[in-house]
Each structure stands twice: as C-alpha cells, then as structure tokens.
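Hello forum,

I keep getting stuck at the same step: I have a sequence, I want structure tokens, and every attempt I make locally crashes halfway through. Rather than fight my setup again tonight, could one of you with a working pipeline run this one for me? It's a single chain of 130 residues.
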Amino acid sequence: MLQEYFSALIQLVAGFGFAGLIIVLSIVFGRRAKMRSAMDVPYECGNVPEGEGSPAFFSIKFYLVAILFLVFDLEVIFLYPWALGFQDIVLENGAAFASMAVFIGVLMVAYLYAVGKGALTWHRNPVPRR
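Reply #2:
Ran it on my machine without issues. Output:
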C-alpha cells in the first residue's frame, strides 16, 4: 500500500529540496545591500524617493471592473472545454445543452445586474432639467 504513495513522496522531496537549494544559493551568492546608495532603495528605480510615500488613491470603479473581469473571465474558462466538444456533447446528451444554457443564462443575469447597477458606467452625467 505504501508503494502507491512513493511517487508522491519523491515529488515532495524534490520540491522541498529544490526550494531549499534556491534559498541556500541566494544566501551564498546573493549581494548584501547596504541601503546607503540610491540604487539600493526599493521601488524607486534608482531615484531618491520624494514625498511622504503614501499610496495614490484610485477610484473604486477600477477595482470593480477588475473583479468583474475576473469573474466573467473565469466563467469563460468553463465555457471553453464545453465549446470544444459541443458537437459530441449535444448530440449524445441533450441535458448537457440545457445545463449550459442555464449557466449562460445565469451569467447574462449577472451581467445585466452589473450594468443595471452602473458598475460599468465610468461617467454619470445627469441630464439637465429645465
């Protein structure tokens, strides 16, 4: 019974061994930073940092669009294998088509909800009333 897990044990040992080797090599051959010159300051590309260092604030719309992109992009990952085998799947099993139609319907409802809430509207210019 333990022979079945031998290949997994070899993978674990190889993975931890490689990680340990990389850490040891970075300690042995890595450059020691003195943090005295402008080139050693992180995230400034060698320039001396200016300002107080607080992050710039972005509109919530950027994050909302990013999350919506991730959600709908991940759903496309589920559609791709189904589309590749569309002819074989639908001809053999009509329930597969119905289940994917429900899946796409739920995606459409989610998209319409996001559009209805104004999640994809960047500028709201109210119509001037007279």
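The mean pLDDT is 79. If your local run keeps crashing, start a new thread with the error log.
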